[in-house]
Structure formats: C-alpha cells, structure tokens
Structure prediction request, 403 residues.
Amino acid sequence: MPDPLDPAPHDAADPLASFRERFTPAPGVVAYLDGNSLGRPPAAAADRLAGFVRDDWGTRLIRGWDEGWWTLPERLGDRIGGLALGAAPGQTVVADSTTVLLHKLATAAVALRPGRDEIVTDTGNFPTDRDVLDGIADARGLTVRRIRTDPAAGITPEQVAAAVSGRTALVSFSHVGYRSGWIADAPAITRIAHDAGALVLWDLSHSAGSVPVELDAWGADLAAGCTYKYLNGGPGSPAFGYVRADLLADVENPVRGWVGRADPFGMTDGFAPADGVRRMLSGTPPVLATVPLQVSLEMLAEAGIGAVREKSRRLTRYALELADAWLVPHGVAVASPRDPDRLGGHVTLTRPGFAGLLGPLHAAGVIPDYRGPDGLRIGPAPLSTSFAELHAGLSVLRSLVAG
Ligand SMILES: *Cc1c(COP(=O)(O)O)cnc(C)c1O
Prediction:
C-alpha cells in the first residue's frame, strides 16, 4: 500500500519545484523551516551584489544617483505593489525598516483624524506594532484600545465592529498573525473601520510574497511590511510602505528630510513635500540593501503570487497531515487555524518544553522558528522548500517528541 505521507508525489506534482535549485545551498541544513522569519538567499544574489559594487557603485560613482538609484524607492515599491500587494503604481515605496515605516504611517494617520483620540489594535499584534502605536499614543495623548484576541484565531470583523466608534482615528492589525498564521478578513475589517470614519493600517510582514494581498480592492488606506521574510531580501533589507492614492495629497511624513522634499537639490529654506508617495521618504535610499530583493522579485514575477499561494497551501496542509500522524499522538497541539482559507504560510505547533528541543533540532540540521512560551513555527517557503524537506524536518521532530 502506498504511504499516504510520502512526499515524493507532492514534489513530482509541484510546478514550482525547480525554483528550489535557485537558492544558495546551506551545508548541514536538512530542513530550513524558517522562511517566514528570514528567507533564504537566491543564489544569483551573490553575483548581483558583487556586480553592483564593482560595476554600478564602482564605475558610475555619484552618477549612479541620476542613473536610477534616486528613483529606486518608488520603482521597487511599484514592483512589489504589482507582484504581491494588489497596489497600482504610485502608492508604494521601499525605505526604512518596518518599524520606522509603521511609525511614520500611523503618525500620519492620526494627524489626518484630528479630534479623534483612539487607536484600535489587538493584544496579539507583533511587539513592534504595539510599541509603535503605544509610543504615538503616549506622545499625543491618545488611547490605544487593545482588542483581546485568541492568538490561534486572530482578529475578527465582529470584534472590530464592537471596538470602533466616533473616537477611533486609526485601526491597525497584522493581515497574517505572526504567532499562528491566521489571516484576518481584511476587506471586512477595512469596511468596518471606514464606516466608523477611521483609517486602516495593515502590517503585511507575514503576507508579502506568501498570501496574495489586494490593497486597492480592499480600500486599505495604509500598509507596511518587511522584505526579508517571504520576499528573501536578506537580513535588514528595507521595508515597503503603501499610501492609498487619494490620501497622498494630505498625508504628512512626520520624519521630514531632504529626500522627501519637492525639490531636494534646491537646498532652500522651508520644507515642501514631494508629490506622491515619495513624500514618505526621509533620507538617502538604501540602494545597496535592495540588490538581493531585486533578484528575489524577479523570481516571484516568474512564479506568480497565485502559484506561490497554491504551493504554500499544499505545504501547510502537508505539515498538518504530518503533525496529526506523527506529533499530535505525543502531546503536540496545532495552534493554527485548520481552515486553509484562514491560514497563511506557517503552522504553529505547541507542547510544553518545546524550547528544550531547539538545540537537538539544530544539531540535526532542522531549523524551525521558536516563539515562546512553547510554540514551534513551521514556516516552509514556497519557492525554496520541498515536500521532502518538510517531511525530513518533521520526522526529526517526531523522533525527538517520541523519544
Ligand atoms: C517581522 C515583523 C516586523 C519586523 O519589523 P522590523 O522593523 O523589520 O524589525 C514587524 N511586524 C510584523 C508583524 C512582523 O512579523
């Protein structure tokens, strides 16, 4: 009888299987299951980086700014917007870190709603989101209303409807929850926030390059996210930020700087913001740090976000099948939604004492992600993870929990 958990038929039927060879091999790594925290480097990134230093920076020198570097934040923003965010051109920039862009966008949002004194988020939001919103509230005398959410189930439209009011300036959530991978009903939540007259800021860190996003269709106001998770931009690659086109004329960047000026080289007194989303920039664009991201976006363009999501759904379903057969009998619980329409790219497994397994897992070449108190996040990356790799990693985990 064929083994129903055999990974081979899944890999044989995977239209994206060949992308795996286009990532740098990692000697000794049996299973890399942390693509949701730091994506693997595309193999071409090394040459592209070396070529950039040698040919672009090296030979063009300061002329490079006029030959494309200066406009890179909007050009790359448009590219990510088109490939992964459902955003028409002219609304997205690449800059800063996610934390800094969240701060800039959330500050701009509350300034657009004078007289309203509340920001709504949830208890399960990522720590940086909570810190940013608390910091803005403290500085401006606002209140953060924190909806208590079940980390495994995430935020619901009903909860948002009960929390917003005429006092709400801004509503901000993650689209995909970092702990369990739940997917929020973004169109419904956006509508509810708008009905209350509030603006909405989505954190797309765990969505971009994994779960299709439709910012324009949702009617979202603002969004930010990182590029080093499923977008494989490398450690510290800059973030992206989105401002809906019809807000652009009014939105004010709280971190004014010369790169966001209308006339950066005029060196005049007095700040006048650039037209369009460029006004959200502050200082010199991190050109060098976007080189691997550019390689990765070429791969995403080739694969298509629809196929990426389809493989991601198959990977998480397979991870759940393996977990049910091998781990649940040993006291492991699945702490992620089981409805594939509500689950993003990773699956979280919990069992008391999981922290103690990280050492043995790493020693065996298996690298999952750990989130305390006792959650192992299994984050396969659709372009670089095979079903055989997932099978190998979870079978090591099985032997550890059974042993
Ligand atoms: C990874 C992540 C971040 C990261 O913020 P940085 O400023 O890039 O460190 C922010 N928000 C969420 C939801 C994340 O998952």
